[in-house]
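Provenance and format

Records in this collection were gathered into a single text stream. Each protein contributes a sequence line and a token line. The two records reproduced below are adjacent in the stream.
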Amino acid sequence: ILDNLRLKTLDSIKLILKIIENEKILSNPPNNSYFCSMGKKKTDKIVFENVKILDAGAKGVSVAKAPDGKVIFLPNVVPGDVVDVQTMKKRKAYYEGKAIKIHEFSEHRIDPVCQHFGACGGCKWQNMKYSQQLFYKNQEVYNNLKRIGKIELPEFEPILGSEKQLFYRNKMEFGFSNARWMTDAEIQSGTEFDNKNALGFHIPRMWDKILDIEKCHLQEDPSNEIRNEIKRFANENNLTFFNARAVEGLLRTLMIRTASTGEIMVLIQFYENDKNGIELMMNFLAERFPQITSLQYVINQKLNDTLYDQDIILFKGRDYILEEMEGLHFSINAKSFYQTNSDQAYELYKITREFAGLTGNETVYDLYTGTGTIAQFVSKKAKKVIGVEAVPEAIIDAKANATRNNITNCEFYVGDMKNVFNDEFINQHGQPDVIITDPPRDGMHKDVVEMLLKTGVPKIVYVSCNSATQARDLALMDEKYKVVRVRPVDMFPQTHHVENVVLLEKR
């Protein structure tokens, strides 16, 4: 296997262990505690009849109770449904299961619009009325802040729903596979499929399984047309799709980015350095879709398909697209982070600016500034804005965007937040009047929280994509800062994800 994969030994071992874990290819495992522990436990599947779905839980699954009192987590059902449940996993305190029959439909249930619902794990709440989606998102934020944070909370301001509930994303990533995932319906049909190439999404928790997607309702056209044309052209010209197990094949991933300005970026990752195949595909895209503003590709021969350590090759156009907000223009390149719902990002930033309550005389620190979008958005109402970010490429973009927008009161610095944000930094740049922080899902490092407390800044606006880690951080600040405003914002309709904005004032 090692010889065939042509990989370094460590990478080979990792891959083989993944194969063993996912497929149990060792029919007679050796008497070794490590390998034996990797085998999946056999559990007797149980059927519970007429179970009522009680609530929406974390990660988009719903919650019910088994007759023995244990919690059941199951997907693709709606609170209020009455179903028969078949358990798939049994744990000490809960079951994981699936609904095999629905006896009563919830009043909150609707028909999902997507033909791939249920097989694709992307829009787990598409069968639930949007008003109820907002209810459960708001409830999740409240529960996290109350139960994890254990802090005094003001009355929540109404959760801000998204005007668009479909076709709202500006970035989509798809995978190629030469052994597509077969749905239950396809297996039961007994149909033989000669072509098993797929271009679509990974099946949840399965690193090598791709569900072929015909139409996705998350990104506006021409996204679907571009993806389907790429697949058609590749099949007609015998361009090979990636095989994650053998680690071979030409076509690996596809990224499509769109902007409210109408600009489009398409980037294809190739695994094999087949110059003829690459030229064939890229020339086809350039001719078939002349409206593509930025056409790029990558040759990535790593085990993972992350872009951040790869050289991006520009094939046609420029290496970025432009997004616009209140007359400001932001360049977005292949590696840039930008909120994936452009319209709702504008609403989120307006709430952030409102919570900051700027008068034009304040020094504002924007921690985890990314490409500086929030910093520049609030800059016209501030005296000075200092942005800090760990990713050097993001800071390069932030500075370029500030120049493009003729903004002279924004400064951007790169570095690990826990190391950069210190006494020396504040002495150099001035005492902040307001701090805006928008950390990643893991929240803020404890050293950053300690420094926030040390500054004694009058106001902190905390924007979060994970209210659980936000609650943890708020608890650490509770002795010195009081939460005075809270407003959740729905950036991702049809999913359980929700952003939250909190205003803290010094006690």
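Adjacent record:
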Amino acid sequence: QWAGQSNELLQRVHNEFKAIDYHDSALPQSVFAADKPLSIVFAGQYSAGKSTILKALTGGEDIAIGAGITTQVAHTYDWNGIQVIDTPGIHTILDHDEISYQAMESADMLVYVVTKELFDDFIGQKFRKLLIDADKAGEMILVVNKMGDVGNTPENRRIKAQDLEKVTHPYVPQDLHVVFIDAESYVDSRDETDEEIAAELVERSNYEEFVSVLNNFIREKEIPSRMTTALYKIDACIRDAMKEYQPSVGDDDVDAVEEHLRQERRIVQTN
């Protein structure tokens, strides 16, 4: 029943695009591909450690990590039959933003990664647009990485969780499956020959909790997340078409104000 209704919606959009002579190549071909592997995109701040997390997950020694921009394009890796996708840091270079947001639109689930510093005002506003405007809260894990620098203790996690609510409200950390990790510590533990030090690194990393949260999230959300992927893509295509066909007075500043007001209206309607 769901697939039938969604396919009818997809066909209506195809028909409307043809009627206004708007390209429909970006629209999904179908609403649910049962044989397609589940896909999880890892996105978030520049230098937040997304590649390190994926190196810990997959054990891939060819994944570049370190200071600076190590990921220029989206890379897909296999993790137990699931596609995990590494993306460039967002809100640093315009081309990187486009690559990352395209990956987010086409993936079934999202792991959003920030550092122990959490959100500044700019990144916080962009994250809320993803959370509220794009309605991604139900398909997202929020990971706070690099906690080893401040001590990945229960008390520090509690303090950070309270700070997160300033950005995530009305959602609380539990809604977003927040987990605090230090991925670099786990990667380092693999090369540590001293068993006691290796055990300390693993404990500091909190890697096992991260994998447990990720596995539980997949079990709980896999089917509904895969069902909505095409709908998010259809929504993005319609928004692009609306922008292109939006009447303009020829003044970029006025157009920008109008777009801002439309976004504010969507937030009010959603709430």
